[in-house]
Amino acid sequence: MGRPYKLELNQLEATYKWALEVDIAEFSKEMRGVGESPLLAIGSGGSLSTACLIASLEQQRRGNFAAFDSPLLASGNPLVLADTRIFIVSARGRNPDVLGFARNVIAAEPTSVTSLCCMKGCPLTDVVDSFNRGKGLEFASPAGKDGYLATNSLVAMNTIVARAYGGGSDLPPRYRELFDPSGLRQSLAERHQDIPLVQSDELLLLFGPDTRPAAVDFESKFHESGLANVQLADYRNFAHGRHLWLAQRPNTTVILFVCPNDKAIADATLKLLPKSVHNIRIETPLSGIAATFAMQAAVFEIVSAYGEDRGRDPGRPAVPPFGRKLYHLNVFPQAAKDVRSASVLRKQCARRKVGLPELSVEQWEGVYDDFRKRISGLRFTQCVVDYDGTICDHRDRFTGIGANTAKSLISLLDGGFPLGVATGRGKSVRETLRRALPKRLWHLVTVAFYNGAVVLPLSSNQDLNGDTESAPALVEVAQVIKEGNLPAIKVTVRPVQVTLELEDATSAEPLWRLASALLSKAGRTNVRVVASSRSVDIVTAETSKLNILKSMPGATRSSGTETLFIGDRPAWPGNDFELLAGPGSLSVDEVGFDLETGWNLAPAGVSGSAALVYYFGQIKKSTKHFRLALGRS
């Protein structure tokens, strides 16, 4: 199996050039929109070093906490995964571990799931894209499929990742400028106790922060190809007892990865090593991300030299039958999809965020059953649904309402039950709803525009911003925001609402904190600041999505007791916090800490419009009311 290793190394120059030039606009947009949640990068085999690189760049370039791990070790705690951004890297996106992990992590409903593959049509992309907050990215490397070891795919993915994190300008334009292998080959041939280094079977690799991804790949390649036994240690962790290995096994060869940022500690360490211990210093004048790439190039050369010495091609080993069987083991059984477990996990995460004590298993069973029975027993005469993130998924914002969602809404309206749609947006929502719903049903639909500042029937053609005078409080707010000198933030001022948006943002909470701080500092406390998933709206104190109840044609227009409320942002400062505060409320996404309201009772991994369709599928209608027929699962 595989391809000649030297042939693959000869393709690296072209692969590197391609990766420096390929269009990564979509990937860069995805990375610009990241929130503040911690990031967990996942990789198997050779891709683990790319996961290491991603975690390193996330911390260095974004200032966010990040870690990397293998699929199995990362899958242990769904409570942790639920509050984390997941980034999965895989050259071909088809190995059983990344696929199994992807399916299971989606069931834990993390903040987001992103995948990166080095070819088109990967199964991993399909799995990730099935998640409402998932984004699968594919780049078809001209080098094609790797041999047994990760080579061209590794250089391609690492280069693309570096560029997406803004590190492309730190890299040289040509691959050969990263590392000159001539001196390395000479060092590998040097003899110690009459044995050349290249024949050493015990290696200890010391590294620093900049060269860690290359060190991870070094260990992976040597063990995967059976060339030598490798231990990894950073320069200081080596000092905590690991030095005893050298004292008792002096035939071990020490390899030092050295770049300017760790030169001082490498020099000091090398001076203290016994003269009897053979060592090789591999040094680069490059720093940061460029040093990572330089040492990665060195790893390729060292593996090649070891393979030549042993008469084996690292790219085409003889893989034993038991190894193939091990590779194809399925150790990721399908995650539990029962509603009960998923619903409880969501509330657990929400309560943990605000520091509330954990409940016992029995207590969770009780509060879940209480809510399910309570909402199942309610008889509804109308329904109010949030728009963005509920009726229309965020990734469909510019394409419209999905066919299944429209079908569900029409089914409810055909039963004669009024529908309210609450949104922070304006006429674009009216146009989209009109395209999705038959005109014969428009009279049953009421829309609360701009978070309830303007409420109109869907059939109305009234200009939403026509002759409305600007609220004095919002005029003052607009001035405060303007004086804040925030050029990166798009500010839209309307008579009834001021909207703040940060391009490509996936979370509005940082923007909400900024706006709240500016207004508090200026003493403007007579307005409300609410956050959607991607923007912040500032409205008058009287503005509320609940204003829609007064204009709906239902029998209980002034009361919400017979209204089913569905939204996606019930946790403060979400713009559905007030809407989903009653007993007849459900969320299609995040939940708040309140055990009495706003549960998400959709199956694990089902969110957004898919969860809305699920809820509407549980509706049982009669002549005068409808109810939710929720089972015990």
TrEMBL record:
Q: Which InterPro entries match?
A: HAD-like_sf, HAD_sf, SIS_dom_sf
Q: Name one GO molecular function term.
A: carbohydrate derivative binding
Q: Which domain of life is it from?
A: Bacteria
Q: Which GO terms describe its biological process?
A: carbohydrate derivative metabolic process
Task: State the name under which the record lists this protein.
Answer: SIS domain-containing protein
